[in-house]
Write a structure and sequence with these properties.
Elements (H helix, E strand, L loop, with lengths): L7 H7 L11 E5 L2 E4 L4 E4 L2 H4 L8 H11 L12 H13 L4 E5 L2 H19 L6 E5 L8 H6 L16 E4 L4 H7 L4 E6 L2 E2 L5 E2 L2 H13 L3 E5 L13 H5 L5 E4 L10 E5 L1 H4 L15 H14 L2 H25 L2 E7 L2 E6 L7 H11 L1 E2 L1 E2 L4 E4 L7 H24 L1
Parallel strand pairs: 3-15, 5-6, 5-7, 7-10, 10-11
Antiparallel strand pairs: 1-2, 2-3, 4-12, 8-9, 11-12, 13-14, 14-17, 16-17
Helix pairs in contact: 3-11, 4-11, 12-14, 13-14
C-alpha cells in the first residue's frame, strides 16, 4: 500500500477544527470523476459546492492558467492588468452591469455589495437610510457583516454583537416585505434561489413585487448569485430567467471554475459611490484568477452548454422521482437547472448526513442543504453516463440507509 505523508489524522493535528471532513482525501480529478489517496473512484455531484462548473482538469481552464502563469501572477490594486480588464468587459457586455469590482470570494463580493448600498444611500439620501432587509434562511457568507445579513441565526451565535440595521422576513412572502420596508431601507438583498436554505426558488411574482417595492422606496435590489450564477440555472445568471433586473449582483463560485475569484456587478451611477479609496482588496482582480474566469465564461456562455443544463436537469429530476416512487424518501424534488435539492420525507427529516455518508461509501459525492435536503451541484457538462451511474449509486445508498434503519 502507498505510504502517504499526510492523512485525515493530520487535519486534527494541524488544522483549526471548524471543518469536519471525511476520512478520504481526493488527490486527482478528471471531468466529473475524482480519485482519492487509495485510488478509489467517485462520481462528483458536489462540484466543489457549485464551483467546478466545468468539472475537474478542464483543458481550456488549465491552458488559461498555464499561459498566464508564464506572464504575471500578481500586481495588487496599485495597478490594473489585462485579464481583469478583459474579464470586466466580458461581464458588462453580457449582463445589465456597467461596472465590476473584483475580489476573492462570494463573501467578499457580498461584503462589498452591502457596504456599497449603505454608501450610496448615504451619498444620495441621508445617513438614516441605512437599513438592509434580507430573508430568513438566506446565506450570504461568513464575514461578520455577511452572517448578519444572512438569515440563519446559527452562523451568528457566539459572534455578537453583530452589525445592526438589518431586518429579516420570510422568503416568498411579499406582504411581510411590504410591512417591513420603509424610507429608511437602503436595500433588499435576496438570492434568486436559496441554495444553503434548501434550494428554494423565488416565485417570479414575488421577485417582481420585490423589485417594485424597492423602486417605490428608492431602495437598491441586490441579487446574491454566488451559487446561481455562471450557467448554473441554464442562463448565464438567474435574474435573466426571472425577468427581474437587480441594481447590484454578486458572483463567485463557478466564475473561476475552481480558481478563487469573486465579483460585484452594478450600474455606473451606483458604482460612483465607491470613489477612490473607499473600498479595496489586495488580491482582487488577480491576473491568474481573471484569466481562468475569462476561459470559464467563453465555454459556459454558449448555447450548447446552457441548453444542455436544462436537459441534464431533467435527467436528474426523473431519476430522483423514480427513486422516490420506489422508496418514498422525498417530500419534494426542487431544481433550477443543475442546482437540485431533494427534501427528505418526514421519517428521514434531520438525517440528510446519513444519506450523504452512505453515498460516499459507495463512490458518490453529494452535498446537503441543511439537515433535510440532499443537494446536487454537478458540473454543467457532466456526461449523461455519469449522471446515470451516480444515480444508481444514490439509489443503492438510499436502500442501504433504509435497510439499516429497519434492521435497527
Amino acid at each position: 500500500m502507498t505510504q502517504h505523508t499526510v492523512s485525515r489524522a493530520t487535519f486534527d493535528d494541524v488544522m483549526v477544527p471548524n471543518y469536519n471532513p471525511p476520512s478520504i482525501i481526493p488527490v486527482r480529478g478528471e471531468g466529473s470523476r475524482l480519485w482519492d489517496q487509495e485510488g478509489r473512484e467517485y462520481i462528483d455531484f458536489a462540484g466543489g459546492i457549485a464551483v467546478n462548473v466545468l468539472g475537474h482538469h478542464h483543458p481550456a481552464l488549465v491552458k488559461a492558467l498555464k499561459e498566464q502563469a508564464d506572464k504575471v501572477w500578481h500586481l495588487s490594486n496599485v495597478f490594473t492588468n489585462e485579464p481583469a480588464l478583459q474579464l470586466a468587459q466580458m461581464l458588462t457586455e453580457r449582463t445589465f452591469a456597467d461596472r465590476v469590482f473584483f475580489c476573492n470570494s462570494g463573501a467578499e463580493a457580498n461584503e462589498a455589495a452591502f457596504k456599497l448600498v449603505r454608501k450610496y444611500a448615504h451619498d444620495h439620501f441621508s445617513p438614516d437610510k441605512h437599513e438592509i432587509i434580507a430573508f430568513n434562511q438566506a446565506f450570504h457568507g461568513r464575514t461578520l457583516f455577511t452572517v448578519s445579513v444572512g438569515g440563519q441565526a446559527k452562523y451568528r451565535e457566539g459572534f455578537e454583537p453583530v452589525p445592526g440595521g438589518i431586518t429579516h422576513v420570510p422568503y416568498n412572502d411579499i406582504e411581510a416585505l411590504r410591512a417591513a420596508i420603509s424610507e429608511r431601507t437602503c436595500a433588499v438583498v435576496m438570492e434568486p434561489i436559496q441554495g444553503e436554505g434548501g434550494v428554494i426558488p423565488a416565485n417570479p411574482d414575488f421577485a417582481r413585487a420585490v423589485r417594485e417595492l424597492c423602486d417605490q422606496h428608492q431602495a437598491l435590489l441586490v441579487f446574491d448569485e454566488v451559487q446561481t450564477g455562471v450557467g448554473r440555472t441554464g442562463n448565464l445568471y438567474a435574474y435573466e430567467e426571472l425577468g427581474v433586473t437587480p441594481d447590484i449582483l454578486t458572483s463567485a463560485k463557478a466564475l473561476g471554475g475552481g480558481f478563487p475569484i469573486g465579483a460585484m456587478l452594478t450600474r455606473s451611477e451606483i458604482a460612483a459611490s465607491f470613489s477612490f479609496g473607499t473600498h479595496g482588496t489586495t488580491y482582487g482582480g488577480n491576473p491568474l484568477g481573471c484569466a481562468v474566469a475569462k476561459a470559464v465564461l467563453e465555454v459556459v456562455d454558449t448555447p450548447e452548454v446552457l441548453s444542455g443544463v436544462k436537459r441534464k436537469q431533467q435527467l436528474f429530476v426523473d431519476r430522483l422521482q423514480a427513486i422516490n416512487a420506489r422508496y418514498h424518501c422525498f417530500n419534494e424534488v426542487r431544481s433550477a437547472g443543475l442546482l437540485i435539492g431533494a427534501e427528505l420525507s418526514e421519517p428521514w427529516q434531520g438525517q440528510a448526513a446519513k444519506f450523504l455518508a452512505a453515498a460516499r461509501e459507495l463512490g458518490l459525492m453529494m452535498l446537503i442543504a441543511g439537515p433535510n435536503v440532499l443537494r446536487m451541484t454537478p458540473s454543467l457538462i457532466i456526461p449523461d453516463e455519469d449522471i446515470h451511474v451516480g444515480m444508481d449509486l444514490l439509489e443503492q445508498a438510499v436502500a442501504t440507509v433504509l435497510e439499516v434503519e429497519q434492521a435497527g
